[in-house]
Amino acid sequence: MKTNQKGSIIVLLAVCITVIMMSLAMTVDIGWMVLAEGQLQNAADAAALAGASQLPDEDVLYGTPDQTDDIGDARDSAQAFAAYNKAANVYLQVDRNEDNYIDGGIVAGYIQNPLNINSSFQTDEIPEYNSIQVTAKLANDLNGPLALLMGSFSGMQSVELQATSTATIDDRIAGFEVDVNERLMMLPFTVYADAWDEAVDGGHHPADCSCPHEPDEDDYSYSEESGVLHQSDGIPEISMYPNNQDVCTLPWAPGNFGTIDIGPSNNSTSDLIDQIENGISGADLEAIGGMILTDEDEDGVYSKWLNGDTGVSAAIKCAFEAIIGQPRILPLHRNLTGTGDGAMYEIVRFAGVRVVDVKMTGALDNRCVIVQTCPIVSSNAVFSANGPKSGMIFAVSITR
């Protein structure tokens, strides 16, 4: 006797289709969640890096440290860079968190040892702010939760996701790394480190040299709005070139300050002009084995010896004039051996500067290139736990 099983097959088929659809929906939802989480992480990373890059305190140069405006700039920058990113097709907003609650969207804080993952992120009773933490999320209170296909089967219509990233600035700079097609905004000049320290700490100004400034042009001020002005803002300055003992009475200055060969030996004037205006090419850095200081000296000091030339052509005047007000990295040396094309400089650290005045014609004692210290955040900078503290140059990196 035969039994009619058509009804049973239809039920079984319905169950199978339902299971298949649920599996497909679950697979799509998992992929959708993984994609959204990755996009949130990218946004948080970009926002944290952008925020941390605003933390260097230029008020330190005036002797009145105050990061209040820098924290505000950090929040602005973090919000702006988060908004450049999408997650689940939504342009992201992050909580500004003006009260700096630890669980807020943008949090300013301090990490004592960025290289130690166990070093805590602190927000209270800290010496300075060196880190920005950003949390990007898709949630009910911000940007909306992630909608799910499984909602039709499970009743869970959406899910909340978030990603957190922390970026830190550090001035223990061991050197710089660039790709072959990149440019490093470094001047092919070097200044004696003790002379630089005397200028920064002791207020040595161009007026102490015989470089011919009028009395009201001895010091300079700089702002993004007005550029370089002939008025004092109290930021230390120094004559980067020349510094002959006949010109400036700096007893610890070993001869002229001069150029250093970054690239093939015996840089031509055209090479110097290109490097001053456009920075050092990756190919030039590769030619000298890179710009990373090592601690191979018996005294443990990080350093790199570079060939130099204590003379320089007045033809580079226009190149310096073209970059007035722009930030540049300046190598500092502690030892000099040889003279002329045989000079060798021991580079031991770096300083952030901007050119504020140039005179490169006439007799040697009438020439000068005046630089003023300024903060620089470089994505090419490499920091190390034992690296030398730089003069206002900071590396920025994701640390948490």
What does this structure look like?
Strands 11, 14, 15, 18, 19, 20 and 21 form a seven-stranded mixed sheet that branches. The protein has helices spanning 6-52, 68-83, 151-154, 193-202, 269-278, 282-287, 317-322; strands spanning 86-87, 90-91, 106-111, 121-122, 131-138, 146-147, 158-159, 161-170, 173-176, 183-184, 191-192, 221-223, 227-229, 237-241, 259-260, 280-281, 291-292, 304-309, 327-337, 344-359, 368-373, 376-378, 381-383, 393-398. The chain is of the alpha+beta class. It is elongated. It is built from seven helices and 24 strands. 25% of the residues lie in helices and 28% in strands. Residues 204-217 and 244-256 have low confidence and may be disordered.
The general outline is elongated
Q: Gyration radius, to the nearest Å?
A: 29 Å
Unreliable residue runs? 204-217, 244-256
For the largest beta-sheet, the strand count, sense and barrel status come to: 7 strands, mixed
Fraction of residues in H or I helices: 10-25%
Distance between the termini: 73 Å
Strand segment tally: 24
SS-derived structural category: alpha+beta
The fraction of residues in strands falls at: 25-35%
The number of helical runs is 7
Mean pLDDT: 83
